[in-house]
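We emphasize that the prediction below concerns an isolated chain of 113 residues; any contacts that depend on oligomerization or on bound cofactors are therefore not represented. The input was used exactly as deposited, without trimming of termini.
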Amino acid sequence: MLVKYRNSQNKVALGLLSLMPKGHELKHLQQTMLRYQQNKNWEMYFWQEEGKYIGIIGIEVQKQEFVIQHLAVLPSFRGEGVGKAIVNEIQKMYSGLKMMTTEETEAFVTSIY
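Result of the prediction step, given as a token string:
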């Protein structure tokens, strides 16, 4: 189930975003979090199962499309369809918009379909 990010969940979000290929630098992660907190077009959601956050997706909503900026799943849950479930749910939420990816998220999204 997708759960919208709240500022009080900053540490959890930082941990999940650090799983992204380029997400290891603290300064870069902090800048990313500021973007989600300050820009109304940038939205972040956790994937929750059995009360635990095991994945995260961050999108930028534009006029006719949304762009998957960030997508990560805890290593112990990879290969179980969690990434695909996250993307499917976000597509349902934004069904009127075309889904796009960034260079960084394209490989992950392509691999789950």
